[in-house]
């Protein structure tokens, strides 16, 4: 989103496990007013994407993913890549949450359901009691 805010046109390539989720997110953004031509969403294998990125010589690439691919990108792009780590994810529930089990289920679904992206897993979960 930051790329769009700065007036740049991002090329978005996600892992095949999350492609359907990101496609629906983009459809939602289009419904909310994002012009269709503002994002290029592509789906092909990682080798083809690597060739595209190397040939295009972008000023900057943001990468979230495996360290193996990150190291290859850093080499191929002469360090013109920002690597994003998932870090330590906190979830804090306030005192007004009535359906704690449902919130926990949604957190698990966000992490392990359709996309299988464990990077969104909560590292620690706090609940404030009244």
Brief summary of the model shown:
The protein is of the alpha/beta class and 130 residues long.
Structural write-up:
Belongs to the aldehyde dehydrogenase family. Residues 4-126 form the Aldehyde dehydrogenase domain. It holds the Pfam family Aldedh. The chain is of the alpha/beta class and 130 residues long. It has two domains: 2-84, no CATH class; 90-127, no CATH class. It contains five helices and six strands, in the order αβαβαβαββαβ. It has helices at 2-5, 19-31, 46-56, 67-76, 100-112; strands at 11-13, 40-42, 61-64, 81-84, 90-93, 124-127. The strands form three sheets. Strands 1-2 form a two-stranded parallel sheet. The longest helix has 13 residues, at 19-31. The chain is globular, with a radius of gyration of 18 Å.
Name the average pLDDT. Answer: 81
Record the strand order, biggest sheet: 1-2
| Number of helical stretches of at least 4 residues | 5
- In helices, the fraction of residues equals 25-40%
Low-confidence stretches: none
Integer count of domains:
2
State the order of secondary-structure elements, H for helix, E for strand.
HEHEHEHEEHE
User: How many strand elements?
Assistant: 6
Structural class assignment: alpha/beta
State the major sheet: 2 strands, parallel
Tertiary shape: globular
GO molecular function, one term: L-glutamate gamma-semialdehyde dehydrogenase activity
Family: Belongs to the aldehyde dehydrogenase family.
Protein name: Aldehyde dehydrogenase domain-containing protein
Organism: Solanum pinnatisectum (tansyleaf nightshade)
């Amino acid at each position: 989103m930051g790329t769009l805010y700065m007036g740049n046109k991002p090329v978005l390539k996600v892992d095949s496990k999350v492609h359907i989720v990101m496609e629906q997110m983009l459809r939602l953004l289009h419904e909310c007013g994002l012009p269709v031509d503002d994002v290029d969403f592509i789906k092909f294998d990682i080798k083809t994407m690597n060739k595209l990125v190397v040939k295009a010589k972008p000023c900057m690439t943001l990468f979230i993913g495996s360290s193996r691919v990150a190291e290859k990108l850093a080499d191929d792009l002469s360090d013109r890549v920002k690597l994003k780590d998932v870090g330590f994810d906190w979830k804090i529930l306030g005192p007004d949450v009535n359906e704690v089990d449902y919130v926990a289920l949604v957190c698990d679904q966000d992490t392990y359901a359709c996309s299988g992206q464990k990077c969104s897993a909560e590292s620690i979960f706090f609940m404030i009691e009244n």
